[in-house]
Structure formats: C-alpha cells, structure tokens
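dude i think i finally got it to work??
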Amino acid sequence: AAAWCAVELAYLDLFGKEREESVEKILSLSPIRGSFRYTAVVGDSDRETFDDIVGQYRKMDFSDFKLKLSGNLDRDLEKLSILKGHGVSDGDIRVDANNLWSDTAEAIDHLSAMDIPFFGIEEPIAPDQLDALRVISQETGCRIILDESFSRVAQLESLASDPDTWILNVRVSKMGGILRSLAVLSGARELALPVIIGAQVGETSLLTRAGLLLAHAAGKSLAGQEGAFGTLLLAEDVCDPPLMFGVGGMIDSDSIDLSSRPGFGVEVAGEAPIFTRLG
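look at this
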C-alpha cells in the first residue's frame, strides 16, 4: 500500500505540473482553504522527559494530545497526571495502545482504571477484532479509533450498524494513496463516521501535503490531524521550505496557497531525507 501510495503521488504531481493545475483541480476538489490544527503526540518516555515534551507543546499552545500507552498502569497514570498538570483537558486526550493487550478484559481493566473520558482509544488489542472492540467501547464509554484494523473502503460495511462506536484513522500511506483515501472519506461521511487524518512518524512534507488535501476533503468529518513535524523529526526534509506546524499546532493554508500552484505545489530539493534517531 505504501509503495503504491508513492507511485500515485508521483503521477498526480506530474499530471498537475504538465497541465499547470493543482492536484485538487485535477481531482475535482475545492481548493484548500483555512487553518488546520495538528495533534501533539507524546510517547512512552521517563517522567522528566515526558514533562519537558508536554511543556514544550503547551508553550506552543497545543490543545489536542495523543498519548502512547505503556501498559504499566502506574506509569500511564503518572503521564495523565502530568498532562492535567499542564492544563490539558480530559476530552482533548486520545490514547494509542498500539495493539498492546492480548486479553480484552485486561484492556478494559487498565483503561477503566485510568478513569478518563478519552476522546478515543486507538487499537487497544490485536487488529481485526471488532466485536471485542465493541465491548471495550461499551465498558469504557469511549470511541475506538481504528488504525491497523481498517485499511480499505470495503470494511466500512462492518461498521455501519454502530457508527457511534468508531473513529477512523485515515493515513494516506496505509490506505494506498489519495484516491483510495478519498473513497474512504466519502463512505465515512455517509455513515457520519469521524475521521482522523493520521501520519507516519517522520513523514516528509510530501505526505504532509497529501494529508492536507484529505483533511480539507474530510470537512465536518475531520476529528483530528497528525503529522507535519517536518524538520522537528527530520534532519532534512525533501521540500524546501518544509510544510510543518507552527504555534498552536496550526498550518495556515491561506498563507501558503498550495492549491494555486501546479501539482502538489511543493518543490522537492536535494536528496532523500536523513532521519534523526527518535527517543
């Protein structure tokens, strides 16, 4: 899927530049307008590092947070306490368990003990166990964010009976490109399913640009957006200047006006990016 995504992005950019039209115009989409707010993502680090990272995000006026869980209850409760200490509201926190638990009851016990009405819980157990995920949602009172458990538009049918249970993580590289992602967004809109436009860790500006297209196309279905770290995670980006969030986790698309330029409207410069080591 990721390889096909790369091929599709290259062709869409090429077609746009040959016709001197934006990718949005080629795909009969409205031009990107307005501002986009990105989520602060905080991992499983020691207390001092975690507190410092959250503090930096708050100084930049981030309000939405995604917390990676460790599976150690005391450690996870400590991280929640730090987030609250920095003024982060319960409803602005979503957690990502990365398929942490093999046992549904264990997942419920851990998440219930955290006693927070999370905005969403991402992938608490092994992928593709929708019935078990329904139980977790009912017991915790939180929506389930599907990432590894959702990768193609045909799976929407299995979510149609209870759309209030789910949030979709639509990551363009996982879905296999923009066209497949747009089909998912259309189906999600029909079911009134919220979506998060996800991102890989250390994405370059090319995928950030693709994510902006999807976020704009999602419209009122958009519940969150990830990525746009640019050179905060990359030693170098393939685009100069890189597309990355600023104060408040915001990208103001009007100031960039990407949809007025051919293709994706970004220029690739230099060689492939060099990744820094992530903590």
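Confidence is low (pLDDT under 50) at residues 271-279.
im so relieved honestly
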